[in-house]
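Data deposition worksheet. Section B asks for the primary sequence of the deposited chain exactly as it was used as input, without tags or linkers unless they were present during the calculation. Section C holds the resulting structure in token form. Section D is free text for depositor observations; keep each observation to a single sentence. Incomplete worksheets are returned to the depositor.
Section A, Depositor: J.P.
Section B:
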Amino acid sequence: MRYARNVFVLAAIAALVGCTPDGGDSTPDGDRPSDAAADGPAADAAPDRGPDDVGPDMRPEDDMAIGLDMAIGFDMTPDLGPVADMGPVPDMAPDLGPVLDMAPDLGPVPDMALDMALDMAPDMAPVGVCGDGVVDDGEACDLGPDNGAGHGCTAMCAREGECGDGLLQRAFEECDEGDTAPGGFCDAECRANELVDPLGHERWPEGARVFVSNGFEMGGPLIIEAGAVVTLEGNWTLTDDLTLRGRPGLPVTVHPRPESRCSSFLIRLSGHTLVAEHVVLEHARDGVFGRDGRLEIRDSVIRDLCTESSAGIAGIYLADTTSGVVERVVMRDFVARAGGNPGRHEADDLRFAASDGGRAGSVSGLTFLGEGELVVDGLEISRLTAGPGGDGGDAEQERAGAGGLGGGVYGLILGRTVRVRDVRISELRGGAGGAAGSAGFGIISVGGDGGPAVGITTEFARPAMQSPVIENVEIAGLWSGAGGRGSRGRENIRGPGFGGGLGGRQGQVRGVLHDDDALLRLSNVAIHGLRLGALGQGGQGGPGAAGEDGEPGGDGGSGGGAGLAWTDPLVGIEVAGPIEVRHATIVIDDQPGALPEPAPGGVPAPGGEVGDEGNIVREIALYGVLAKQGHRGPVLDSIIVGDALEGPRWQETTGLAGSANDLEVTDALIWGFDQPITAVQARRIVQEDPLFVDRDGGDVRPAADSPAVGQGTPSAVTHDLRGVERPDPPTLGAFEPAAP
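Section C:
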């Protein structure tokens, strides 16, 4: 390590070599060794010495230049003779090498020069000591008294640890979470995302890494540009307009910190406008939430939303005075991993009534209940899964807890004024009902009902809607949740055991559910792949009394029955308001095995029997289109197909059903129902197999030789669901025939 004293000794020696008789410097200004050092790599790597060292424009290597200039100020060489006989210094330097190599040829250094140089040295502080808190040449780090294991810098000023090992080495790292994947809170060089206060800023530049703290309120017009990664802790509330502006291949990515994922909304509107273009929202419980303001989201993805509690999930939730525009947006992979909270005992000794299992929250792609207007033009919603209801608690006396209700799953929940086109909804799964608790000596309970699966619904619209229009929609793959298991039967210490509880009902399935007084217009709608979950199994029968004195024990109780099904659990389109349907294709049970087998009764205890309700499935009905409450409306140019496959049968299957002539159907193909039409005015009805391309595989386009081809009436619907131009006359249903 170098000391200032040595610098001045060398400087004095060099001065003797480089001086002329009149004390001038013979080395040209641009050729000084100090000038070369200042421009080289060593100068860039040198540490900052602080305010007590040389001025701000000088580098540590300039020490040599300072020494030379000071030594030249003295004439200490009269006895050595003129130095000029040795030739100019620039010509000698390359051959002579370092200054120390030159010193022996010059003879002994005059004592006067050496003494003066040494006398000046004590005024300069030593540099380069490990442990002084300054990183010097030869040191990888220096934390001063904090050097040592665990801090990233050893006692010998050497680095320890590496980025991504999960240990914070604060000599080199701002963060280290053991994950250096792109987009995380800590980047690949273990630098924390920048904490940016947007107040006073109008723009975060392209590629910025932004961390927004919990409960942060954005308070100024702000633009976040392409490639930015925004990490949120908690909620982000807008108190002014915000633009998230990505571009294809370089979106703005918004997500929460890893430890807060699945727990909160990402962005809250608060009376202002959020414009999001080419944005990815991911890994939180919800995407965008607003009760006041305006959302415009285009060419974006909301994905991997999740919850591990009974809370619901919504990709976009807008209510009250909020309005919105959704264009070319994808929502996928929303999963509620846990449902309602399990029931519990209300007393430590388990003697008294137990609580019911909690109800699971719903999962929805887009919920719009605002009083403004919603325009949807291009939306894909897929793979939404609701959580199961919680299990009921056990009880020794009084009542066992019932199973909680499974979570419902909804593609679109619509209200007020909506214009919806070009939507595909697929793979929605309702949550299973929770199992009932054990009764002991108490009262048995039923299993929880499975959650419903609904493609599009207006049943929650408040206030009344204003002429909603929905066109070019495909809904495929709705599966309701299964019912939960009933309670195990009570034990009887005096005779035969008691029977088990009923299993829960399976959830309902609706392709479209319209429950509002506004006229709903539907055109180019395909609904297929609807499945019901199984009925819940009845509980096992309770044990009977033990025998005495060698007598046989009492019989076990009867097993509980299967849960009672909903009256109309599976419907393509259900309306309790005026409707106009044109060019719809509705296919119920379009895949083998979609209908549940009759659910078995509960397992009896030894000596018992299956309960009276065992192996019975009751009150199940299936409808292509079902109209309620006296509302009229036409169904035009459509195909409605029911259960034409072999397998379990329903109590009632009806193509179109109403009451008091509620529906009018004209130019339609209806096939595969026990009752094609009930209380419906009908004209020009075809009752033949539609000859779909691949019904079992989900391709419900008619083949070229289908009886539906050319049977429609020319209308304003000029193209089919796939964008194919309709001829005159058009084909029935949502699709023109596939090319031969």
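Section D:
Helices lie at 4-18, 33-39, 41-45, 63-72, 89-96, 99-102, 111-120.
DSSP finds seven helices and 35 strands in the chain.
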